[in-house]
Each structure stands twice: as structure tokens, then as C-alpha cells.
Amino acid sequence: MSTPSVSRVLETVADVAGERDLANVRRSLLQSVAELLNTDGVAFCSLSSDDKDQREAPFHIRLSAETLGVLAEGHSVLLEVDAGAPVRLYPVSREEALAVRFCGESSATDEGRVIQALVRLYVNFKELLAASEQDRLTGLLNRRSFDAQLARVAEASMGVPAADGEGALQYWLALLDVDHFKSINDRFGHLFGDEVLLLLARLLRQCFRGEDRCFRYGGEEFAVILAPTSQQGALKALERLRQLVETYAFPRVGQVTVSLGCAAMSPGLAAMDVIDRADRSLYEAKRSGRNQVVCAPLPGAADERKDERSFGDVELF
Q1: Hey, which residues are catalytic here?
Q2: What is the structure's pLDDT at 309?
Q3: 234/168 Cα distance (integer angstroms)
Q4: What average pLDDT does the segment 21-43 reach?
Q5: β-strands 258-264, 170-178: how paired?
Q6: Phi and psi at residue 168, in whole multiples of 5°?
Q7: Span 30-39, average pLDDT
Q8: Would you say the C-alpha torsion 5, 7, 10, 14 has a positive or negative sign?
């Protein structure tokens, strides 16, 4: 058995502690277990009773009701699989576990303790991130997290060759605002207004891919950073959300609509430039009648707007 050195474990802890993105922390945990220990595969697996057949793992796992019960009590479980060495599951939460297949006979002692320590680190850090990076009402990522992640994406986009046309794949920023939200609060009260925001957050999670990031930008305004896609793909996803919101029956309030503006995270544009372009497009959607998606022209396009924005008499809220 090869026991990881103390210095290497401390380096891993330092790397994880420097992360502010839960998705990166998850990847870091998987990578750390794979690098530190004598393993032949590591992955997160769902503990949902509706998903007992884990096809996304690097090995085939079937979870019985008895196994799920043991994991729910916080204990690790050693499972036989279709082929290869047994797999040990370490519970991470009520919804998932870390599945590790060890090489040789190393799953029961020191290496198992190291994994349990890393899992505890991950769980504690996940809770800290939730407290500092999530919006308390909606559970979405908050404005602080948005600023950090948008800056990271904008910086990464700087080194990417300029996109060529509408079919090029690139990150997109979308800003969306609940139409006439002040009227909702005035007519039904802030309790029902908060419920609208909570339900809208659920629709956002339902509508976008796992790689897309959804945020509560502030008040009744939300933001989405879409993973690389074409302009057509971005517009299709945002239009799908607009229609989903429009047809959803919000309790007591009834119909609610949103206006959306989006802009490409094109090379050469700083984060604030992209926000400004998306915000201008959102204003245009409001000015043009609300309940629609407006996309900013790609930088350098012939119809790119050069004028300064003037809100005039348009009621944005």
C-alpha cells in the first residue's frame, strides 16, 4: 500500500481551500483521491432511490435498499461490482456518495482514512460556500459569486481567438428581469413577491444545463452565464426559459413574464463591458414591450449600436 505523504495531503488541502467554485471543488476532490491514493477509479454517484443504476461512474454499481440505508446512516459500504476490484462508497450527503475502487488490498486502513478526511473537508467547504456564495432566498449563486465567476470567464476568454460569425462557440451572459415586479409586491404583498422569485429560481435550474451558472443578480433581476454555445444556441435556451415562465401558473399571482438581454463574452471585452452590453439589451427588451429576448450584436457587427443609452420615460419595473 502506498500511503500519501503528509506534504502532498497538505498541498491538496491548500488547493481546495483556494477554490470559490463548488464545481471546481468537486473536480479537485476526484483528482486528489485519484492522485494521492492507489485507486483504479473514483466518481460521485447518486443515492436517489430513482437512480439506483449508476451508469455515469467508471464502473457499474447497483444500490440496494439495504445499501442506501447504511449510507444514510453515514457509514461507508464495500460493494462487489460486475468486474474488477470491489468499490467502496463514502457518503457525502443524503443525495450522493463518493465511489472509489482501490487497487490491491488497500481499501480498509490508511487510505480509507485519508478519503474520509478529504470527504469531511469537502462537506465542510461545501457548507461554507453555500453560506457565502448562495442567495438565501432562492438558493442560486449570489452577486458576489457572479462577479468572481464572470471575471474568471472574461479573463479566460481574452486568450481565445476571436469568434467568427454567429455559429462560433463562446460564453454568453444573460440578464433577466421580472416584468412589473413592483406591481406584484404592491398588489399581493412581499411574501408572494418572494415566492415568485423562489419559483423563478426553480425554473432557471430546470431550464439550463449543468455547465451553465445561474445567479440572483439583485432584487428581481437574475443572471445566467451560459457555457460555450453558438448565438442560436444561446437564444434558443433563453427563449425556452421565457416561454416556461410565461406559461407557469404562479400561485395567486397568476401569469408572470420576464424580459431578457444577452451578450457574447467575446475576446477583448472586460467583464464590465459584457455586463453593459447585456444590460443595454435588457433595456431594449423592456422598451420594446417586455416578455422577450434581445441579443446584443456581436462586437464589430455592422449593426452594433454606438449610441448612449437613455432610459427616458420607460418604466423598467
Answers
A1: 220
A2: 42
A3: 11
A4: 80
A5: antiparallel
A6: -70, 145
A7: 81
A8: negative
